[in-house]
Amino acid sequence: MGLFRKKENNEKKLENVEQPEANEPIHTTGFYSDKGRRANQEDSFLITDEYHKRRLILVADGLGGQEYGEFASNLTTDVFKNFFVQSESFDSPESFLTRTTLVAASMLMNKSTEDENLKDSATTLTGFMIIDNIFYTINVGDSRVYMFSDNKLTRKTKDHSFVQHLIDTGEITLEDAFSHPKKNLVTSIISNNITKLKTSIEGPFNLKEGDILIACSDGVHDALRDAEIEKIIANNQNADNLAEIIGKASYDAESKDNITACFYK
Predict the structure, then answer these.
(1) What is the four-CA torsion angle of 114, 196, 56, 207, rounded to 10 degrees?
(2) 38-56 pLDDT, tens per residue?
(3) Residue 85 in 3-state DSSP?
(4) pLDDT digits 0-9 by tens, 81-94
(5) Environment class of residue 168 by beta-carbon count within 10 Å: exposed (0-12), middle (13-18) or buried (19+)?
(6) Cα-only R_g, the chain
């Protein structure tokens, strides 16, 4: 059975060292989750230990204000947790990730019909599933997965956002997007409106010893440019509290949102 940790309203940190089989490398996970400058923490996350040679790390960033965003993000990570441990085998990582996202959206839709207060409850979702030495990413919205490999940081997910559309059409640059007034306008969410849901699954990507995967809410990358995140990881890649270092750097860079970062290395 896997080990699961979810968001708390106050700062929480966890470093979990895997117990490998003989001759297998030791892998470490960790997280940092804090409400930051917001009154309430709407982020949620999921970290599992290896289960049937797979493990799952997710970050969900709730929308809708106060407890409504919190409800959506918690519901989504709970659905993935339950489905993950109930599945003895997956027909494919892509179908598992896509199907489970749809289940979460359907459950949120049903809950919103039962409670009118939840009609605006929604969440983004990002993360990765690791299978031996490969991984797949999932993304809905503008939280992100990064990979640090050979001292270089690359984005492994693509934002579903208004400014990403402007980048794709050549209307603005990445630097323009960082300070764009509409950079928080997302174009895909898990909500009670299935037409607003676009799930992007990418992979398989190779994963070698020494590589680091990061899943984070936009409270991190809204405050830190990719080059800044890269430098932080390069200077702290062996640190057991890497997630905390990234999270606190985001806060110090004037992040105005909830801050959540999870890593696998």
Answers:
(1) 180
(2) 999 999 999 998 887 899 9
(3) helix
(4) 999 988 766 678 99
(5) exposed
(6) 17
